[in-house]
What does this fold into?
Amino acid sequence: MGIQHNQDVSRLTEKAVLEAGIGQLERLVWHAKWKVEKFNSHGDLKNVPRELWPAPDEVVEGEGNMLMYGGASCLWECLEGNGTGTGGQVLTFFNNANAYIGVGNSAAAEVATQNDLQGASKDRQVMEATYPIHTDGEVNGADDVVYRSVWGSGEGEFAWAEWGVFNGSTGGRMLNRKVAALGTKGAGATWTLTVTLSLGAA
It folds into this structure.
């Protein structure tokens, strides 16, 4: 009886470990953290070296986004080796030369089939120098990538209610979209939007 009991306990323990492992894998999620830094009273800082920028007048931060079907497909195609560095293609890499963050003024809900921001007013800006940032490796932190764009004077001067990451200045693929009330960018202000995307445990 003792041997049978031990075997039964062992099997139950192995089953629990396997189920726990499966559960952890199933909880892997696509996630975003985002931050808007507003420089409302310092003029156009877009061409000023970042180390000379003052502290922002306001910072708005949040989490969440929706991965678009088209964006997910582009990721898988690039993983298979079907991506391209040529700009303006649906499978163009989301790299420094081709990635953009767009903002718009629509609060329409995210839907995974969308391929652009929904606002009547929208504006995409190129990556700030050195972005996107990703550190390759098999260590903690290797599961994320950081995108950042800057809007200077005359750019994106409307209510920011949505944002997304793109692989082209127009058209291309929208990787993700987030609806969030971020405020209204006034004339002459400089705003930045930083987006950290990750794939990891919930």
Remarks:
- Residues 5-24 have pLDDT under 50 and may be disordered.
- The helical segments are 2-26, 69-79.
